[in-house]
Amino acid sequence: MRLKYGHGETIPAGYYLRNDTWGIVCVPEDGALREGEDLTYYRVPLPVVLLLGPLAGLVWVFVYPLLGLSIVVYSAFRLVLAPLPWVYRRVSHRFAAPHGHR
Question: pTM score, two decimals?
Answer without folding.
Answer: 0.54
